[in-house]
Structure formats: C-alpha cells, structure tokens
Amino acid sequence: MARRRAKGDGSITRRKNGLWQAATTIGYDENGKQQRKTVYGKTKEEVRKKLEDLRQQASSTGIPIEDPTLGAYLERWLTEKARQVKPRTVESYRYTVEKYITPKLGRLRLGKLTPLRIQAALGEIADEVSPHTSNYCRSTLRTALDQAVKWQLLPRNPAAAVDTVRAEKREMTLWTTEQVGRFLAHSERHRLQALFYLAITSGLRIGELLALTWSDLKGSTLHVRRNLTKQDGRLTLASTKTTKGQRLVALAADTLEVLAEHRQRQDAELELAGEGWANPGHMFTTEIGTFLDQRNVLRVWHRLQDQAGVPRARLHDARHLHVSLLVRHGLDASTIADRVGHTNPAFTLRQYTHLFEEQRLAAAVPLAKLLAPVDQT
Prior knowledge:
By secondary structure, the protein is mainly alpha-helical. The chain is 50% helix and 11% strand. The strands form three sheets. Strands 1-2-3 form a three-stranded antiparallel sheet.
C-alpha cells in the first residue's frame, strides 16, 4: 500500500535528476487565472520550507485584484483569521473551505456571488455529504463574507440571505448503569481504561483529557487548563476552548484509585522506554510517551464497546452521560456548568432541559407541605 502523503505534500515531487520540486498558487491575474510558482531543493524538507515561505509571502501581500475569486479571498481571510482565533478553529475553517466551499464556489468572483448560487451549492453538499456539513459550510462562508463587507470588498453579505438545511439532531447515546459497568469491567485490563473511566466520571472533553499532565492533579482536584488539538497536521497543546474551560474539577476516591493504578502501569512503560519516552509527566500517552491522536483513541473506545456488547456511543456521549448522572443526583445547572466548563448555565439548561424537567416537577410542592415544620431528626 502506498504511503499516504502528509498534509501540504500534495504538490511536492522528485525529478529524475534527484532534485525535489513543488508548485503553488501565489495569486490570480485580472481574469481570475491562477498564478503559479515552482521552487526546487535538494531535499523534500528544503522544498517544503520554501513552499511554506512562498505561501506566507503571497498571503502577506494581500489580495492582488479588486474583485478576487472567492477562492483567493478565502485564502487571505484564513491568514488573517489565524491571528484572531485558536489554531483548532482555523484548522476547522481551512478544512471546510478546501474540502467543500472552494470546489463548489471558489472560481466565482466575489461580485458574482448571489444567495441563489450559494444556496444551490450548499444543497449539493447536503445531498453529497450531510445536512450538518452543509450548515457548517454556510456558517463558515457567512463569517468569511462578513469580513469581506468590513473590508469593503462587498456591499452586503450574500450568505446572510441563505437558509440552513433541515438537519435531524443527533440523539445522545446514554448507557444504563448496567451497560457502564459492563464496559468498564471489559476494559479493565486495557492501558487506556483510566482515560475512559475519567471521561465518564469527570465530563471532560476528549481534547482536555488528552492534554492532562500529572502536575494538573493536586490531591483530589484536577486543574483543567489545556487542550490537545491538531494544527497543520501536528498534535499541539493549546489553551482550553474558552476562559471558562479553565477550571478545577474535584475527583471522587474511585477515580483517584483508577488513576493511581494507571500511573503505576505507565511508570513500568516509561522504565522500559527509557530516554525514548517523548513526554514525561503527561498523563495519557502512547506506549512510547507520544501524544495520543483522537482518532486512535476513538478506535479503541469503539472496539471495546463492541467487545463488551454495549450500544455504540461517541466519546463525547460520555460527557453527556456524566451530566445526566449529575442532574439525576439533584445538582443544579450552575454547579454542573462550572464542572464541565460551560460558559453559561443557561446553555446547560437548554442542552439538558428534558433531564431538568424532573427537578421542575419536584419543585411543585403544596403550600401546606412547604409551611410544615422541617423534621430535624
């Protein structure tokens, strides 16, 4: 099987004389035709560096024509956006632009974009991929074209007049207590069981879990402050999704015991790897200490579910499961929001309104009972 090319390697090739070469688009002429430039080098890494320098140089020169194509404009917008938002957000925008928006609309001039053309393209994406993807494309395009209006490249945003595609909300898969027990019992001997146990008992996001270090654990309290994300194809530590995401999470005795056992197992792996261990002090790693890729973790998560005979659930559903258990034990929305890193308790209420309904009904207490003396025994 041929090795899959790394991100950004698509145009890098080796010539017959042994030199490496790559070509990239540096702009567009007045007719919208791509302007290409080729670089050469003795090694693939040298060419990759020249290619990146050339792209950055082309981006910094701005948009070369008054009415650029959408594809040219979006490249410029992504460059500016990288200075404003987190790397994970930019990576998501870039993937959406390159995978879906540019192939459908990239050759059109900004001035030729109309709500009808955008609606037609988004309808095709909904049919070919999914309504959720189509709606995210609409959101990305609308954000990008809002900036075009601010830069006075457009009088108004044509994407603002485009409707979303109806998409069925994906239901959460919440395990029963018996299913939780069955999964944990089956995964008990797996090296990542502590990761899954912590996901269920803490409600942390997967990126937050994979970014944890042992120094983040102080006694029975976990300090959540980082997120493991992918930037330019590489796993990178960044700050949490929001300021509210940086928080203290108290852990119960059973979770601390599972983590202690995990650390003993990890110490044995570290001793075996010696100086080859990549990230000393990191809580969840591969067997040689490198960062865990979310996709690989999810493969293990789903494989263990299938083997345990429990319904397939996303790892994010473990977060929903945690919240649902907290609601059933009577915790209020503000406390839950603080624990799981929601910016606003109102968001927690909206997300789990069906679960809080039992609490609302329980609040309908007859006046006679409310006025009755409280039993102190």
